[in-house]
Write a structure and sequence with these properties.
The chain is mainly beta. It has 3 helices and 20 strands. The protein is elongated, with a radius of gyration of 21 Å.
């Protein structure tokens, strides 16, 4: 049986942008695989991996969705189709480091995404304006990639470019989930996009949302493109959205904004009894969501049902029967707390000497929570539009590929 992360990747693949586009549209296949025929990219710390947010502190595999680029200490630019499965209101994290899979490198770190928006003019069929912006829950100490000045992104066929991304390299000696880079050459330039061919590298599944860089007149690398799509085999053509075409109406207004400051929030151990009316009332990492049965809205994680959070934990065994060790934040001493679904009595903390098997929770609360999350995503989106296919990499001829650590 395939592990859940692979099954999700296959689901994302099948939900890619498969609708045929008109011959004159900005056509190509959306795709996500780390750079084919490329090399390691240790000197690109501003290039990050977009992953599905982990809800548990143990036993949950990582699912690579796409690549992204830091353009401010707390803002990541990626592709709009990377948000389609979970929507703009989905639960995401970004990974900063050189190796995400099979296990994150020791220097790597995760940061929660607090807000996500797609370009309002994004067209799924053609990948026109296939761009999205992510606001991180906190700024990171990494120098962002420089953006082109208005009207200063001089692009022309024959120009050299460099692409960076995470994913499947089609090379057994270079496994998926590593940050890689490689050279391409521009072949066609349009007002809102450009195409590139291998020189000798090529972007592929897992690179969607990643940066395409060229050197300006001063020899400085500038972020000029967002990887959006390409041919099925990842051998001949990459389709990229132009960053300079996104500056005035999308990127600059978003950079000028900030996250809303939080006022007094509800206590973590009172969420089953305390109703909420907005996300600002919820502890960091939780959102105010309507619950089944039409009751009052509660602060919760999308992947879990309503519940309270108790003691700090390191694993499910510390949370007693019926509880799980839930991840409120990607990292930190207080990131993981025992979660108890509403209607259940919070268990007494187990002795520290309890083994990893003692008091292990039953599967029902977790399975119920995942089912509720899937149903909620399929039927509604609080802020954004309808859900679609994250990390999608559509391809011509009706075949589709989507984000994930591998193609299946």
């Amino acid at each position: 049986m395939r592990p859940p992360s692979v099954l999700l990747s296959l689901l994302l693949w099948t939900l890619g942008a498969c609708a045929p586009a008109p011959p004159d549209a900005l056509t190509a296949a959306a795709r996500t695989d780390a750079v084919v025929s490329g090399t390691d990219a240790p000197d690109d710390p501003a290039v990050v991996a977009l992953v599905a947010r982990r809800a548990r502190c143990t036993g949950e595999s990582l699912t690579l969705l796409c690549t992204g680029a830091l353009i401010a200490p707390d803002v990541v630019l990626t592709a709009a189709h990377c948000l389609e499965i979970f929507g703009t209101d989905g639960a995401y994290e970004v990974f900063l480091g050189t190796r995400l899979l099979p296990e994150p490198g020791p220097e790597g770190r995760f940061v929660r995404v607090a807000r996500a928006v797609r370009h309002p003019g994004y067209d799924r069929a053609s990948h026109a304006r296939d761009a999205a912006l992510l606001r991180l829950s906190k700024p990171v100490d990494v120098s962002p990639l420089p953006l082109p000045g208005p009207g200063k992104a001089s692009l022309a066929p024959g120009q050299s470019a460099r692409v960076v991304g995470f994913g499947d390299t089609k090379d057994a000696s270079a496994p998926a989930g590593q940050r890689r880079q490689g050279g391409m050459v521009l072949t066609e330039v349009e007002a809102g996009a450009f195409r590139a061919g291998p020189s000798p590298a090529m972007s592929c599944v897992g690179d969607s949302g990643g940066p395409v860089l060229v050197r300006d007149s001063e020899g400085r690398e500038v972020l000029v493109g967002v990887t959006a799509s390409g041919d099925v085999a990842c051998r001949t053509e990459a389709f990229n959205v132009r960053v300079d075409a996104l500056l005035e109406d999308f990127i600059h207004p978003f950079l000028a904004g900030r996250l809303e400051p939080r006022g007094p929030v509800l206590a973590l151990d009172s969420l089953c009894t305390a109703a909420c009316t907005s996300d600002a009332q919820c502890p960091a990492g939780l959102a105010c969501e309507s619950v089944a049965g039409g009751g009052a809205a509660r602060c919760l994680q999308p992947a879990l049902q309503e519940g309270d959070y108790g003691a700090v934990c390191a694993g499910d065994a510390q949370c007693g029967a019926g509880g799980v060790c839930a991840r409120l934040e990607p990292e930190g001493e207080d990131a993981c707390r025992c979660f108890t679904p509403c209607g259940q009595t919070p268990p007494a903390p187990l002795p520290e000497e309890a083994s990893g098997c003692a008091g292990a929770p039953g599967a029902s609360p977790w399975v119920w929570g995942v089912g509720a999350w899937t149903l909620r995503l399929a039927t509604r989106s609080r802020r954004g539009g309808p859900s679609g296919g994250a990390g999608a990499l559509s391809h011509r001829g009706g075949a589709c590929a989507c984000a994930g650590p591998r193609r299946g």
